[in-house]
Write a structure and sequence with these properties.
HATPase_C_sf; alpha+beta; ATP binding; about 700 residues; 22 helices
């Protein structure tokens, strides 16, 4: 065994130990070695007290696996009053080499694990040598009974400690072992209490959650808790792994992250387990209300070796304050939300198919379904699935009764949306505040308009993600045609640039822009006649703009604001030439006497996939908003350069509140469906499918 190797215990012994000394009774105290710990008693006491019973037992289990054990057992030994007499944690690891016991038990903060990281091919859990003190959270007396290999000889000895004397341990001298089974057994006696959290029915589940990812990653290991084998699969209803790839941190560093989502068959708290790559849990974070998955009990194991680095720096102690943890969890939450949306849809789809098989579904199967009926069906599906989920007795009712209920619900949605509140009240048993909210809304509007509003938000979310796919997918961005496809799509989606703008013109010369401009103002004496003279740039050339958007500036009547957007194909970087072109358009407007109107404001914007270094410097100037490259107060003209990433992120930010309230996020299927429904005229199905990765 290596000099820095830790300890563990055999699972089966020829001698039954029933007292603290047990088979080691013959080792006299005057043969023992005192191990002094250079730390204040109060600090050591804090290590032993600020830990739950489950966490303390888990530390001892980890110590066993860290010592190379294949099998670890936790035995809760009862007393005559059906309370707890002792807690035993035994393993068949390599034991504690007696020559290293002073270093292993006397050191604090420089554990051998912090230097080694791995042992026998496994990632190690501990690192600071604090785990042994966790045992004193359970009882006053703790004894490690260990058998190790000294050369070719099997030797045994004990290490004892007391909660009242945490600054030192005693290690007996080794003797020839009565067994050839290596390992360590930790015996905790004089317990602080009966620890109901260890003896109740949920204890095994809590241990299962702690070790689920690790045992899954290392299927040859076994763990028993109070006679029950810890088998993550036995209480799982569903398990799925996801590789998120590299998550880009705010610092610019890229870290690989994967997650395992386990759905449990029993009630449990929802948490993120922050693990290293091998599934060793290092810290736990409550999921919180951001992820809505009604009816699901789950744990998310977030696996990255970056957590190991953060743990070494004690940065996981307050994960909410650590930017790296926040960055990783932000990416994880998006994936988890997507997972449960898909699982909810899967559950809904399976339930609806069952209704169709039972012939109680109130709608006929048709190839062509118009938009109105499609929305009606979606509302019905959501409400009806909730009826069944909220009322367990509903699926036990006769088929004729359920069919009649569904017909009434469908008719109410179609003909009298206001009556749905009564159905929800009587059937779904909504909370009082939810009933009041719905009733207030239905006094001011109709359910159909609420649905339409939600649909607009969903459509916009789908467009943002679909555009992202089209513009940044390696294959589709080569095939996307700027004017025939991207340009035409954006003509009817002008909100993507600014929410309150409407399309005034597209692919117009500057002269056309002038005509539109004058038309908005109406004929005015200070404008004069509109001639056919071209609007010329500084090189006496004309120019063509892609999109011109316009809005009235409120509350001042007769004032207008114009946004001119120049679109660049995905392969064209925004560079000095592109910036010069868009600035020349703006200056042409500025110097043309026909445009000099104090009651108008012009914004020119060039949009592309990427910027070169020159453009990046121009768009990041001191005391200017990001993207502003030219600004002239005299003529109310500004010029901006934006990447599509910035445009799409701005749109996401505007929609984020509604997205959270609706608990809606676009996925590949919904993006494809929207492109086919709204933009099939310009975006071919093949291109849409390639971009989104979905198939119709």
């Amino acid at each position: 065994m290596s000099p820095s190797r830790p300890a563990s215990t055999g699972l089966s012994r020829p001698v039954r130990r029933t007292t603290t000394r047990g088979a080691f009774q013959g080792m006299a105290d005057n043969q023992s070695t005192n191990i002094k710990i250079e730390a204040k008693h109060d600090f050591l006491k804090s290590l032993a007290s600020n830990v739950t019973p489950i966490a303390a037992v888990s530390e001892l289990i980890w110590n066993g696996f860290d010592a190379g054990a294949q099998h670890v057992k936790v035995i809760l030994e009862p007393n005559e009053l059906n309370g707890l007499h002792a807690i035993r944690v035994s393993d068949d690891g390599d034991g504690i080499d007696r020559s290293n016991v002073g270093k292993l038990f006397g050191g604090l903060g420089d554990s051998w694990k912090a230097k080694s990281h791995r042992y026998k091919g496994r990632t190690l859990h501990g690192k600071n040598g604090k785990g042994r003190f966790r045992a004193f959270a359970l009882g006053e007396s703790v004894e490690w009974r260990t058998t190790y290999l000294d050369g070719k000889a099997f030797k045994s000895y004990t290490i004892t400690g007391r909660a009242s004397q945490l600054t030192g341990f005693q290690a007996s001298l080794p003797t020839a072992s009565e067994t050839s089974i290596l390992g360590t057994e930790v015996v905790i006696e004089n317990l602080e209490s009966n620890f109901p959290s260890l003896t109740n029915d949920s204890a095994s589940l809590e241990i299962t959650k702690q070790f689920a990812a690790y045992l899954t990653e290392s299927p040859g290991l076994t763990l028993y808790f109070d006679g029950t084998k810890i088998d993550p699969a036995s209480v799982q209803s569903y398990k799925e792994d996801f590789h998120l790839g590299d998550v880009v941190l705010q610092s610019g560093k890229r870290v690989p992250v994967s997650i395992t989502i386990i759905e449990w068959t029993v009630q449990t708290d929802r948490v993120f387990e922050l693990c290293d790559k091998a599934g060793v849990s290092l810290h736990e974070v409550v999921v919180g209300p951001q992820i809505k998955a009604p009816g699901y009990n789950f744990t998310v194991y977030v696996k990255s070796d970056h957590f190991r680095d953060l743990d070494k720096e004690n940065s996981l102690a307050l994960p909410d304050l650590n930017q790296d943890v926040s960055d990783i969890l932000a990416a994880v939450k998006l994936k988890v939300k997507e997972h449960f949306r898909r699982r909810t849809l899967q559950h809904r789809s399976e339930t609806i198919q069952r209704w169709k098989d039972e012939k109680i579904y109130p709608y006929e199967d048709k190839i062509e379904v118009n938009a109105s009926e499609q929305i009606e069906r979606q509302v019905f599906d959501i409400l009806a699935v909730n009826v069944e989920d909220h009322l367990p007795s509903f699926d036990e009712a006769p088929a004729k009764s359920r069919k009649f209920t569904f017909r009434l619900l469908a008719q109410a949605i179609r003909e009298n949306p206001d009556s749905v509140r009564t159905i929800m009240d009587e059937v779904l048993n909504l909370k009082k505040d939810e009933q009041d909210d719905l009733a207030t809304l239905l006094q001011k509007t109709t359910l159909s308009k609420i649905i339409t509003s939600a649909k607009i938000v969903a459509d916009r979310l789908n467009l943002v993600e679909a555009l992202s796919d089209l513009l940044f997918n390696k294959e589709t961005k080569k095939r996307l045609l700027e004017r025939d496809q991207l340009h035409k799509t954006l003509e009817v989606e002008s909100w993507i640039f600014k929410e309150d703008f409407n399309l005034a013109g597209s692919e117009k010369t500057l002269e056309d822009a002038l005509a539109i401009y004058i038309g908005k103002l109406g004929k005015r004496e200070d404008v004069g006649d509109v001639s056919d003279d071209p609007v010329l740039r500084e090189d006496d050339k004309g120019g063509r703009i892609d999109l011109m958007l316009a809005r009235s500036i409120q509350p001042t009547q007769g004032s207008h604001e114009y946004l001119v957007v120049e679109l660049k194909r995905p392969s064209q970087k925004i560079n000095s030439e592109v910036l010069a072109q868009i600035e020349s358009y703006a200056i042409a407007v500025a110097k043309d006497n026909r445009f000099h109107q104090k009651r108008s404001r012009w914004t020119f914007m060039v949009v592309g996939n990427e910027m070169d270094e020159y453009a990046q410097l121009k768009t990041r100037q001191k005391n200017r908003p990001d993207g502003l490259v030219f600004d002239n107060d005299e003529y109310n003209i500004s010029v901006w350069a934006k990447t599509w990433s910035e445009i799409l992120n701005d749109a996401r930010a505007r929609l984020s509140f509604f997205s959270q309230q609706l608990d809606y996020q676009a996925d590949s299927d919904s993006e494809l469906e929207y492109l086919k429904r709204a933009h099939a005229k310009y975006i071919p199905d093949e291109l849409a499918e390639m971009a989104t990765g979905a198939r119709a």
